[in-house]
Amino acid sequence: MDKVTINQHVSFSKMIQGFWRTHTWEWSSQQLNKYLHELVDRGITTMDHADIYGDYTCEGIFGEALKLSPKLREKLEIVSKCGIVLPSDELSWTNGHRYDHTKAHIERSVNRSLTELNVDYLDSLLIHRPSPLMDPNEITEALKELVTAGKVKSFGVSNFNKSQYDLLNNNLVCDKLHITLNQLELSPYTLDALDDGTINHMYKDEVKVMAWSPLAGGKLFSSEDAKAQRIMNIIEPLAQKYQVTASGIIMAWLNKHPAQVMPVLGTHQISRIDDALAGFNITLTDQEWFDIYTASLGHDIP
Fold it and tell me: Rounded to whole angstroms, how far apart are CA atoms 293 and 297?
């Protein structure tokens, strides 16, 4: 699988494995370790985490599995996110639901993630969501220290629109830093980031896009959703034409965009990974791409 260059230090796999549901898989460390090897064998080397996943437990589950194969770290790119606080009995400072982008919180979250994940550095750190109280100066100061300490190799954001991205990135650039990633919700079902210009803005600044929920959280496969049915009425014949599954067509649809969209899948079934990977071996025509797009819109383009 081709790699996507994030900066001079980091390149990601074209498809990314997400671990927000790891606590529900009920796997032993040995089982998860085996799955990590299966992913790497297929060229999927980028692993997406966040401090809050699984009530602050998923990073630790991953870290225990990674301990079984310490050299595997050299083949992986590990991403984590911070900035959301959720109430939890796991940690004393999680006493409510809010966003926290203070320097102290960012550094505390990164240090905890490194310990839980059993790694010395993150290939990328993302601010999980924008905050009305976001202070770009404070985030910049935190990032400068983390980069200097060798704890973070690249930096990005998640769920940031154009103005939120500009507010933070313009401040970072003054310190010779910049945003390299934006993780956005994107699928044939959810087009907001395409239609509001956010992805175009990222493309202009050479910021790479990670797509979370590329299968729309399963909504695309709901027989009771009229929008999903419109989309699937286009996708299903294409799946037959190209001899792949519907998820393969969805990956091909995302892959066709020039912004080098990297979908994040959360499955723990290797067969579903293989189904999705098959989509990177086909190229939809422009008309096929637009047929899916207009089915989602519910009307023809002008």
Answer: 6
